[in-house]
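Hello K.,

You asked for the raw outputs rather than the summary table, so here they are, unedited. I folded two proteins back to back in the same session to keep the settings identical. This is the first:
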Amino acid sequence: MSGQVHEFVSAALGQKRLTLLIRNASLLNVFTGETYEATIGIYKTRIVYVGPDSDAPAASKSIDAKGLTAIPGLVESHMHVESSMVTPSRFAEAALPHGLTTAFADPHEIANVMGKAGVKAMVEDSRGLPLKLYFYAPTCVPESTAVTSGAELTPEDIDDMLGWEGIWGLGEVMDYPAVLKGGKKISRILDSASARDVVIDGHAPLLSGRELNAYIASGAEADHENFSVETTMEKLRLGMYVKLRGPYVLDAQKFAAALKTVPHPYNLIFCTDDVMPDNLARLGHLDYACRAFMQAGMDPVEVVRSATLRPALHMRMPHLGAIAPGRVADILLLKDLRKFTIDLVIANGVPVAKEGRLLVQIRRRTLDGPARKTMKLSPLSVEDFRVEPPTKNGPVHVNTVDFGESNHEDTGEAFAEMILTRLSRAKVNVVDGKLSLGETALVFVFERHGRSGGKAFGFVRNLIRDGALATTVAHDAHNLLVVGTNPEDMCTAANLVIRSGGGIAAVCKKETLARIKLPIAGLMSDKSLIEVSKEMDALRGAFKTMGVLDHPYMPLPNLLALSVIPHARITDKGIFDVDRQRFVPPFTS
């Protein structure tokens, strides 16, 4: 026996002095479900002793954890760093105080802008952080043929990435229609992941019955697209890891009640998917989901298992997710288990955050070079937002993308109702060759990656009442999307974003109400999360003034161009009927 293993054995036997001793903690054991007093011994990065304080080896430092509950550090198995609008190192600064010690992120947002180079940049920026950050290889770049993204990842590209250090599995397989039809590209990608025996993350909204069985048979082993109790239970019973995203997009009370009917929900996991910067600053990360489900009446042991042990097992990381000898020393000390109030965060054996404050200095990096040169659009003019109707005067009929309006108290059902758009028709008046939009707004999507140079326009309802919003945070291709009620405000907002190299701008009656500069791939800033969250707060305020359809989870304009969500979208190629997989013209008879 030699090297590091021998050191751990010697330390456990008391032959080496421990690095840190956590004494007299109330240990929540994720294996047995028991809670009992124990002392935890750490040597360097590993736990080497768990037992009575009287038998604990000597240590260089100790912490008296009397009155505190010890649980493993939180493990996030499905998220997108880019949604926080900050770089990985800045994200680590913000997330560590919330108890997140390990995360697996799908970088398909930056991959849609920069391809493999974007994924590589995220991996490199994450090296050496106290927050262990791993990545998936994105599967659907672009998400469909209905959009022009900044790159295309081939099966060969994805197989190559699966061999990179820091890549831990296959990202969410969003193109489930192609999976069910036996599409050649997605089948090759799935075969490659299966041959390497890596984790395959899923994305299966609305699937049930035979189709869900078929999708799972393809190798997809987990899914975060869970809006209803019925489909969630079906996936649980079919062996999928069901990832619940918390109170942003589902009713924790309802789900907690339903889960009480399941005796042993082995395959239940909590995740976040997308956390906007203001939500991360105000409410937290995975700890927010844990807190919400505990307060909804879910068994605290099951809550902790769903955010620690189970995601670690799902991600083939048996050395994470538990407080036991040989495991990585990621430990949270909680003042109040049910309120999930975190006193101390220990990551890799080192105290990194105390009562919400970071204790360690994180080396700040930034993604430079090509990541700051992704805006390939020149400034636009008001004429770029003029639409020539088919008549000089009189009414015309237009195809519209209609967002649903919902006052549903259940935020999850409200979100589902809002994002499931309808393809509809509206009557718009034309006066002297100019559109009088009425309740309809204009949408322009400009391809901004320098590939096709194309643009398209369409009409939308129930999304904005006044002014204009321009954004490059337009999932998943992240072209420049501009929605508004008049060409002047639309032009101003668009140029603010172009000059920033990407970002978001809200303009109303010639006044700039809010602006977020995101010069890194048009998605991220290298400012601190607190700074970006304040800018996001201002943007939410502007939305209220302008009547922009918003949701706590995510502003709805971000999803207007996402061509894999039913039932209609607008991309740089035109108005897309998702159900029939075809484009329709803006004007109709």
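The second followed immediately with the same parameters:
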Amino acid sequence: MARATVPSRRSGRAAALLLGLAVASLLASRTPAKDPPAPPTGGNDVQDVTRLINEKLEAGYKANNITPAARCTDHEFIRRATLDIIGRIATPEEIEHFMKDPAEKRRALLIDRLLGKGSDAKENSKYTEEYARHWANVWSNWLLGRAGVFGRGKYHEQTETWLEDQFAQNRPYSLLVTDLLTAKGKNTENGAVNFVLANVGEAIPPAERAKFGQFDMVPVTSRTTRIFLGIQTQCNQCHDHPFDANLKQHHFWSINAYFRQVEREGTLPMTNRRDTAVPLALKENPNVNVDPVVYYEKRNGVVEEVKGAFFKGDRLEKGSKDRRILLASQLIDHDNFPKAYVNRMWAVFFGKGFVNPIDDFNEQNQIANPELLGELAQRFKHYGFDQKKFIRWVCNSNAYSLSCTVNKTNEKAEHDVLFSHMLMKAMSPEQLFESLMVATNAAANENKDEKKKSRDDWLSTLINNFGDDEGNEVNFNGTVVQALLMMNGQQINDAIMRKDGKGTVDQVLRKYPGANGRINALFLAALNRPTRGSKEMDDIQKRLPLLDLKTGRPRADKDAHDPYFDLFWALLNSNEFILNH
């Protein structure tokens, strides 16, 4: 993958270094929802489920004459797992800790630590907080998108705060979803209400609200089935599904009826500025849309009437109370509920799901390894929709430890869904920010409020270049815009060039007297690995004016920091840093 080449405020020598470095360019019940069943006791679920994953994937390799990629290095693994589980690269101290663990256990021990299940209580608390913050951010973007009043600013933060609490408790996924669908009250007190509030759709004319409700509730209908069931019903708003005979137009509108008694108190601001985020409240009004009926127009102009029903479930009747509670119960009972979660999360860790796009289960969309998807979904449900268990299963599998380097048997794009090598993934804007803070040690130099402001400023600049208003992430392929943002960012340059004992480069120079030690330390801080032997080390030293070639001593005409600033800047702007591999 080629790097973008753009002018830079840094020196021409550094730009040449960026291009020449030998850094790798890598690649339902009809009653209110109940608590999930208590997870089974005894046995070893990690051992059992990872064995299942390994066996099913290995059968696929054999059937397709695939030789899987080699096992990734330990340095690649700690960077990958730390990024995926807590949303940032590892620190040199964490790498040192990891390498001291017994080789045969260190990957499993790392996964436990990152999930807050290690042997040190203080460490567990730290990682639990980071885990919760990372996944709250991921789910907020999925639920609310990145654009508009709810995609950024105060409302987005309210939802993130609520989700952080859910993930910190490791609340069962089924209950988390139930709360999102059934939430009521003020968003200043319960950030869960913002999922529905963000997706109410167009307002119904006041004269018709008693019959049809306050809003058409179209966006929340399609977003609910898409996110939680992996079923794209948005096109069913206007016509029957073109690829799935089981999805008709009336299915969309019969689900829509479950939301028609929702009302919003408060008026949305016109911008997402923090000071204009007025309080909003969500309530259920049983006195509107009393007959749970919705009218929709078919393509031929005929207007049809449909009564509320969840796919093939029982219909809503006049006077049915707590419609959204009924909806949540029926949704969680649906076969696709655990499958959609497994598929979505598998794609987070492997770069692709069993079904792609990840939210488009339909008759014509082939499932890769349907047996594995089905059995993982069953076990996820069986173990109480425990999200940390699922992550532990996936990250302990053989496939998650594979290198991203392909071979002749698995190099074609159609082989990707066999998961015989790790796919490279672009960091999200949030992962990129957090990783830069860790690499440059900037996070340690700011208080909580300063870091939050830095993060908000960073994201406001980068969001327009990542993702879209549907909450989808856009793959990064080394665009000029991205390279300019990275290389010319004042914040990054300032963090790199600190000489007060707090910046990474300055700390490295104080700690290591020789060039080799300094170079390896900077590689660990940025790329989570040392240089790849003497060849890479020699190549870098040739490109950096570290020594006077005649005397063998440090150059007297240059600040000792300068070449290391350039090296570190180049590492942070390499594809190897920007990509999760």
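Residues 12-27+427-580 form one domain.

Happy to rerun anything if the numbers look odd on your end.

Regards,
P.
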